[in-house]
## 1
Amino acid sequence: MNPLDWSFPIAVTWLIMFGIIVVRAGGTFVLGRFARKGIRKFHRVEKIMAGPKYRRAEDTIDRFGAPVVALSFLTVGLQTVVNLAAGTTGMRYRRYVPALAVGGSLWALIYSTVGFLGFKAVAKAYQAEPGLTVGLGLVFVVAIGGLLIGLRKDRIPAEESASASAN
C-alpha cells in the first residue's frame, strides 16, 4: 500500500498517519517501560537506578522531556530513540501522552501534506530525467557526509584539549 497512490481527502490521510505514529511511537515508549522493569531485576542496575544522581536525571527528563518528545517528531531518525528513552527513564504518562499527541499531530500534518508532495516531485523528476535525479541525489548525500565529517573534525580537537586539561 503506497501512500503516494492514496486518493483519500487530506483529513483522512492525516488520521491514518496520526494513527500510525501513535501506534509506532507509543509502542516504542511502552517497550521502554517494559525494558525498564526487566533491567531493574539486576542488582547492580537497581543500585545505580536507585542512586540520587540517576533519580535527579530521571526527574529532569520527566519534567522537561515532553518538549523534546514533541520536537523529536520534526526530525528524521531521532523519534524512536527519544520515545524509547522516555519509556526507559520512566517519564509519566500524563506528560508523555500530550507530547505524543502534539508531536504526532505535527508529524501527521507534514507527511499527509508537504511530505508526500516531495516524494511525488522526486518520482516525477526521476521519470523525466533519471540520470540527473540520481546524480543530484548523490551530490546531496556527499554534501551531507562532508558536512558531518567537517563538523566532527571541528569538535575533536576541542574534546581532546578538554580531556588533556582535566588530567
## 2
Amino acid sequence: MNDVVRNYPFRRATPLEAPAEWDELYDACPVAPIRLVSGDQALLLTRYEDVRQVLSDPRFTRRLDAADAARITSNESGGVFGSDMAVKDIDAGEGHQRWRRLVARSFTARRIAAMRPRVEAMAEHLVDTMLAAGPPRDLLGDVGFPLPVWVICDLLGVPDSDRDRFAYWSDTLLNMTLYSQAEIDAAQAEFAAYFAEHVRAKRANPGEDLLSELIAVADADDGRLTEAEAVITGQGLLVAGHETTSNMIGKMVAMLLHDRARWQALLDDPSLVDGAVEEALRFDADPGVGMPRYLSEDVEVAGRKLPAGTTVLCSTAAANRDAHAFGHADTMDLRRSPNAHLAFGIGPHACLGQALARTELQVVLSVLLRRLPTLALAVPADRLVLREGLIVGGFEEVPVRW
C-alpha cells in the first residue's frame, strides 16, 4: 500500500481533464491517505465498488461534527459539514428515514413531470434574452444559473428575485477556502432567519408549493416538523436544488462543445439527449470535493480494516471513471448503456432531487440544440476558469458564441 499523503483536492492539467492521480490510485492505493485544506487527514476512495459500498453502508454516517472527524473545509464550522447546519434528528437513523419519507412524498415524479412545461418555457425565455443580447455571452450567467434558481424557488414558493442573496448564502455554506468564519456565521444567520420567516408564513397560509405540502403532510401524520427541521429542509433543498444543477449545465455544455463531434451527434439524433445527460454526469471530472462519511464502527473496505472514527471521502467522479466498472471509461460515449454512474450518490443519502436535476439538464440541452445549433465555445476549453474555494466544482463562466 502506498502511504504517501497527498494534498487534496487534486489539481488538473486542464479544466476538463481528470486528475492524473486517479489512475495511480485505482489499483495501487484504492484507500489513499490525503491531507485536506484544513490540514486534517482523511482517506480517499476512488474505486467504483468501494465508493458504492461505503455510500450504501449506514455505518458510514454524515456525523462530520464529531470531535475526531476530519474537517473538510478551512473554517472551523458553520458550513454544510458543520454542526450549525445539522439537525441531529433528521441526519441519521430513523429520524433521517422519517425525514426522507416526508420529503419524498412531496418530491414526486408526478410533480416533476407536471413542472416540465414550465421549465421548458423558462428555458426558452432565457435563451430568447441571450439571443437578443447577441454573442458572445456567458451561458452560465444567462441560462445555467437563473434556470435552476427559478425552478427551485417555484417549487418551494419563494421569490426568485432574491436569487443573488441565495447565491451568496449558498456559496458561504459550500465554502472550502473562500470565506472567513465570521462571514459564514453572518450569512448563515441571515439564511436561517429568512427561511424561518418563510416557514412560519407557509404554516399560517399554505400555498401550492412543496414546502407547504411537506409541512401539511408532516402535521397530518402527527410527525410535525419542528421549525428547525423545516428551516433546514428549505435551506437544504434551495442550496442543493440550484447550485449543483447550475454548475452541471455549464460543465455539460462545455464537454459537448469541446469535441464538436459530440454536439453534431446530438443535432443529428436528438433522441440521444437523455443518454448524453447521463454520460455528462458520469464523465464530469469536477463535481467537487466528494461525499465525506464518518465511520461509526470498524469496517473493512478494499481488504483494509478502517477503524471507527475514520473520515472517508468518496470520490464519485473517480468512481465514475473506473475502468473496472465502465468500458472505455475515459471516453465520453453518448450511447453508453447501461450507465449506472454514482453522480447522485446511492444508499440512504442518495439525492432526492435527481429527477428534477435530470429534467432541467434534459430541457436545457434540448432547447439549446433546437434554438442554437451553431453554438460554440467562445474561448478554448483550456481557458475556461474553474470556480475555486468551494466544495462543489464548476466554472466561473462559460463564454459561448453562435
## 3
Amino acid sequence: MPNIDDIMKAAQGVQAEMAKAQAKLDTLEVEGASGGGMVKVRATAKGRILGLDIDPSLLNPNDKDMLEDLLVAAFNDARAKADAVGTAEMVKLTAGMPLPPGFKF
C-alpha cells in the first residue's frame, strides 16, 4: 500500500502533466464551419478564437440575419470541436489512472 508521500508525489506529477496538457490545448487548432463552409471559425482547443473567414457572397446587407445565424453556428461548431479535442487530450493524460467512476477534470 502506498504511503502518503508516494501519493503526494504522484499527485504533483499529475498536476504537472495537467499543466502541460492545458498549455498544449492552446496550440491545437480546430475549425468550425457553417453554411456549407461559407463561414469558418478557427479556434484553439481551449476555445480562443484565432480567425474568421466569411465568403464574400454573404456580405449583402439584405442577408444580415442569415449571416448572423451562420456566424453563431460556426462559432458553436468550433466550440464543440474544441471541447472534443480537449476531452480527447484529457483522456490520453488520465489513461491508466485509478480515478473514481464519473470523475471529470
